[in-house]
Structure formats: C-alpha cells, structure tokens
Amino acid sequence: MAGPDRALRRVVPLVVAAALALAMPVAAHAFGGAVETRFSVPPWMVWGAGGLVVAVSFAVVGAFLTRARPDGALGPARAEGPDAAEQARLAAGGLPQSPSTPHVAPGTRRILKATGLVLWGLVLVAALVPGHGILADTLVWLGLWAALPIVVYLVGDVWALMDPFRTLVPWVERARGGRAPYPYPSRLGTWPSVLLLLVLIGLEVAGRLGDGTTAMAGLVALYSLFTLTGMLLFGSGPWLDHVEPVGRVFRWWGAFAPFGRTPEGWRARMPGHGLPRLHLRGWGDVAFTVAILLGVNYDAFLDSGPGARALAGMQGHVPDGAGLVIVLVVAFALFLGAFVLAVHRMRRAAETTQPPRGLAMTAVVTLVPIAVGYHLAHNLFFVYENAPRVLHALGDPFALGWAPFSFLPATLPLPAAAATTLGAMQIVLILIGHVLAVVVAHQAMETRFPSRVQALRGETPLTAVMVVYTLVGLWLVSLGPSGVVG
Amino acid sequence: MKALDRLFADDPRQERPCPYCGTVFLRRHYLAMHLGKRHAVSLSQAEAEAYHAALDAEETVFVDLRRHVKASLVVLPLILFYFWALVALAQAGGNVAFGFMPLPGVVGFAALVYYMVWSRDAAPKVGGGPTAMVDDGRPADAREETVVRRRDP
Q: Where would you tag: which of A107, A212, A383, A432 has the fewest CB atoms within 10 A of its CB?
C-alpha cells in the first residue's frame, strides 16, 4: 500500500483540518442560537452524505470511466493557452472570442446587440433620476448576476452577443483613430480582471442592499466610463481580454454549456465539454476562476447567520463597509490558498515534475461545474420568484409612474409547503455540479498525465478540496435563501 | 492494492528524462507510458515492449481497483442503513447503547460481503486473463501463446 496509502495519509489531514475548520462555525452557530434548517434530517447528515456522494463518484469514475487501452499515439502534448494563430490575432488587438457563443442569424445578432445597448442606456438614464434605483438594481442584480448566467451556462455565451462594450468597439476605435496610445502592460496578465471582479462582487452585494438609491446605476455609469476609457487608451481587444471582468465571467460560464448552436444547428454535449478550451493563461486566470466560485458563495455567506454575525461583530471596530471588504478578502485568500495547496499536493501525489502553473490551469476549470451547481441552487428559485420585478422595473424606466404590467403579480412566491422539496432540489443541484466536476477533473487529468495511475493519484487532493467545497456549499444552502432585491 | 505495490516494486523514484523530448519523469513506468503515447512513431523495439508491459501492468492495477470499488459499493448501502437506523433510534429517544449491540455482527457481515464480491471477480488462477503475469520477462506475444495453449490443449 505504499503509493495510495501515502497519498491518502497526505489527503486525510487536509480533509480533517478543513472539516474541523468548517465544524467550528457550525458548532458556534448551533450553540449560539436556535438551529433552524430547512431539512428534516440533522444537517450534518446532509453534509456528510454530500461529501460521501462526491467521494464515491470519484471512486466510481476513477475505477470505471477509463479506457481499457488508451490510444497508443495521441500525438504531441496539447499546447497550453491559445494556439499560435489565436495568440497572433489577440496580439494584433483582436477581440477575445468566446468559443461557446451561439451561432445566430445576423438579424438576431443585431436585435441582441440593440437590446444590450438599450438596457445599458436605461440603466445610465436611471442614474440621473433621483430615488429611482430599482431599475438598475433589478437589471444588474437580478438580470446580470442571477438570471443571465443560467441562460449562458445552458446554451453558451449569449452575453458576448449583447455586451454593450463589445458593440461599441467599432465606435471606440473610430473615435480614437489609429492605434492605442499605450500598449497593455503584459506583465499584469489578467490580474486586473481578478481585482475588478472582486470589487464588483463586493459592490454588487453592497449595492443590492441599498434600496431606492441610485447607487447601482451610478456604479454602472462609473464602470462604463472606466471601461470605455480603458478601451480608448489601451485598445479594445486587450482591455476586453485582460481587464473587463463581466464579459470574462460569461466566457467562463459559457464554457460549461451543454447545449450550443453551431452553423449546422443545435447540438448537445457533455456539460463542461468546453472547459478545457477556455485556454487559461497563467495564475491570473486561475485566480479569476476561483473568484467566480467565491462570488457565487459570497452573497449566500453574507446572508447566513455566521456571515451576518461576523459583519455585525466588526461593526464599530472598522469603518463602515470595511467589514464586507475584510470578509471578501479573507474568503478569497482562503479559497485561493486551498486551491494552490491542493495543486502542490497534486504534484506530489502524482509524482510529477510538471510546473504547478500548468497543472493549476488544467485543474482550476473543474471548479466551474461546482460554481454552476451553486449558482443554480442559489438563484433558480430566486429568479423564478422575482422574475415579474424585471418587467415592472422595465415598464417604468423613468420613474413616471407608468404601470403597463400592473396585471402581473409583484412576485411569484413559491408555496411555503414546498420548502422542503425545494431545499432537497438545491442539494441535488449542488451535488450534480460536484459529480460533473469530478468527471471533468478525471478527463482533464488523463490528458495531462501519460499514465492513468498517475492521473488518478494526482486527482485525489483535488477531490478532497471538492469534498470540502461541497460541505461549505451545502452548509450555506442549509442556512437560508439567497437575498432580496431592494 | 497489491497491484500498485508491484507496479512500483523495482521502480524507485529517480529522475528519468525522456530521450526524445527531455521531459523528466520520476518513475520508469511513467516514462514508458509517455514514450508509448507521445513518441509512438520513433520507439525502439525495447521501448515498445516496455510500453506494452506498462499498459498491462496498469490494467492490472485498475482491475484490482475495480474489484475494491465494486465491493465497497455493495457494502456501502448496508453500512448506511445501519447508520440511519442508529440515528433514527437516537432521534426517537431510544437507548443508543442498544443500537450498538448488533455492531460486531454488522461489521462481520459487511466484511464477509466485501470479501465475497471482491473474490468473485478474482483473476483466474491458471492462464491468467489479460491481467496476470506481467513481469515474467517474456514479450506480450509469448504470453498470449501460453494462455491459448493452456486453455485449449
């Protein structure tokens, strides 16, 4: 039992430590107040079962989902990052392409572009109407953060078709005329987008809480100004490729899409099929993927008892709003640290001399199915309940008291009696995401290593981290529903 | 997982660069697999044989692993059922100590079932399947011949 036993000995402390770290807030929660969960069984049993499902699916996938005789000649190792032609195109200032973007007729494309521009314009106008924050809050929080990702990780990157910044590229280029005055500093890589994504996550959560103010609309206006300035100064292609985080997030979501539309028509694939073709470029993209996973969990954590208590505990000791930032930064450091630690464990378990960077880039995309599972679990019912709000907000874009959709209910509340069923469905969604992640990880690792034994041993620490993420996710879901629109 | 022990028994950790592309591997087994997969066209006779031996050895490991996973999957519901019964007993306000009384029997039965499933899929003793006899020093073709002759005298 030399190999796996040692690998196991290395992994088990990791799991135990993580479980302890998790158990402490849970215990504090349990002893600090009445435990109210939506499950009729003890919550620890649900979490344990969830972790078990991931572990068992790893064992089953690892043992049975392997080709008995792998192809003898697979050709040269796959290149990391985009191929030479794509790199040259990007270096020449070309726009980043989203491989999952559905192929639509030119007319539909124009309609989508116009829709994106009009909605963006409405939000900008709302920034000028005092006391009319509902439109921006609804469109950004409910539309862009909760509803549109569901569409994108089902049918591909629709946002690339309606992204107003992408639509404005020809105008920006014409306004500037000629080449960008400054080259994009390549040594920054894609780290600016990580920073901006974290800022947006923090601001969105804070903005969602502000009711009736135009904070969100103002934020969108400021962000648009910032992005357009960046596109003017550094070139549209490099800016949208390296810095602008919204389009990048949707590129990541779209890579998961099981359905897609090619020029030949609709096709269905294994979910997560496009993830290896995201072509990550270094640690910046790794951190970006982790930040997406964090963003999906962050609002749920803040809504939860421990999150709220942590914020309340910090109030008075730190300046207003700093609590959110501290929680965000600490959580991001924890998520990224856990992943980097897992990558180093993977290298040791797989006994490889491959540099951690490439391994991290292969491994990190397997977090996307997990993020999809969380996102769907957190937002599916939330979007359903609040869908009419979008119509009501759009019906009165200028706060003039129009109510064209007054025949619709304000919300579509789900029956309270269904709470248990819905809670169970959330658990199932999270678990499906994790099982898909295990499958995607297995396939990615088998392309990474020549030996199946090596691949399986290398996957073990990644699976341990996934089990931990499952526990965190189920714990967050058990604490309560996602937030409310202002 | 005896098969895994055997896989690395005389294959200590050591830097072994690929003669074609220079990538460093830490086990002879990994290097053999790499050579067979990445440089299939330029392999020498010995390297090709090493690759096929490595494939066979790896398959042995996976056959072994599958037997264990299968056995675990059969035993798992049994353990979960017992666990559920324990929790249900505790939640119903029963005496939990009472629930632990059948524990030795449950563990024994689980071990027995595990062993039965595990040994059911054992490789045949004589002749071997595609999985047995990896390190006997003969090329793969010679082994296939032996198998055929023993099965069909």
A: A107
Residues A177, A410 contacting (CB under 8 angstroms): no
Quote the radius of gyration of chain A (alpha carbons, Å): 23
Q: Write the ipTM.
A: 0.73
Least confident of A33-42, A164-173, A227-236: A33-42
Distance from C-alpha of A208 to C-alpha of A142, rounded to nearest angstrom: 9
CA distances from A74 to A78, A455, B36, B43, B56 (A): 10, 16, 9, 14, 18
- The verdict on A60 touching B (C-beta cutoff 8 Å) is yes
pTM over the 0.90 mark: no
- Beta-carbon separation of B40 and A73 below 8 A: yes
CA-angle at A178, arms to A172 and A183, nearest 5°: 85
User: CA of A269, closest CA in chain B: separation in Å?
Assistant: 26
CA dist A115 → A108, A122, A163, A175 (Å): 10, 11, 9, 23
Nearest to B33 among A62, A75, A450 (CB): A450
The answer to whether residues A194 and A291 touch, using CB atoms and an 8 Å cutoff, is yes
Beta-bridged to residue A318, according to DSSP, are: A315
Q: A351, A451, A456: which to substitute to probe chain B, counting the most B Cβ within 10 Å?
A: A451
Higher local confidence (pLDDT), B42 or A70: B42
C-beta of residue A116 within 8 angstroms of C-beta of residue A143:
no
Inter-chain CB pairs, A–B, below 8 Å: 85
